[in-house]
């Protein structure tokens, strides 16, 4: 089942499709489907608390993370500086002191 976007003018969740348009029954707003699809494709990476992350930010790890293929662990409270955002499941590319280069999931960090 596909979820329809909320109305951009009144934020109503009761939108429906009408040909190549989305229509809001509450305010009468109509907008093209291509416009909302391009807005969804511009992905925004957020941390575990909903803060928007950008390239160059510093983050703090909020959970012990086991490193696959090693007996090492990234401890809670480890600060990671100068992150890079990448596409994929692990959306943060970084270098951790004492461990090296690795990728993290944004759901396990908070913005510092």
Automatic annotation (TrEMBL):
List residues of the Protein YjdM C-terminal domain: 45-112
Give the protein's recorded name: Alkylphosphonate utilization protein
Q: Which family does it belong to?
A: Belongs to the YjdM family.
Highest taxon of source: Bacteria
InterPro entries attached to this UniProt entry: YjdM, YjdM_C, YjdM_N
Residue span, Protein YjdM N-terminal domain? 3-32
């Amino acid at each position: 089942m596909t979820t329809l976007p909320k109305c951009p003018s009144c934020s109503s969740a009761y939108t429906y499709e009408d040909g190549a348009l989305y229509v809001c029954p509450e305010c009468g707003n109509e907008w093209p489907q291509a416009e909302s699809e391009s807005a969804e494709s511009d992905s925004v990476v957020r941390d575990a608390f909903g803060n928007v992350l950008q390239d160059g930010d510093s983050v703090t790890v909020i959970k012990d993370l086991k490193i696959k293929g090693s007996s090492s662990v990234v401890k809670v409270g480890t600060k990671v500086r100068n992150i890079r955002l990448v596409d994929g499941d692990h959306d943060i590319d970084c270098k951790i002191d004492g461990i090296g280069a690795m990728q993290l999931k944004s759901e396990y960090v908070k913005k510092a």
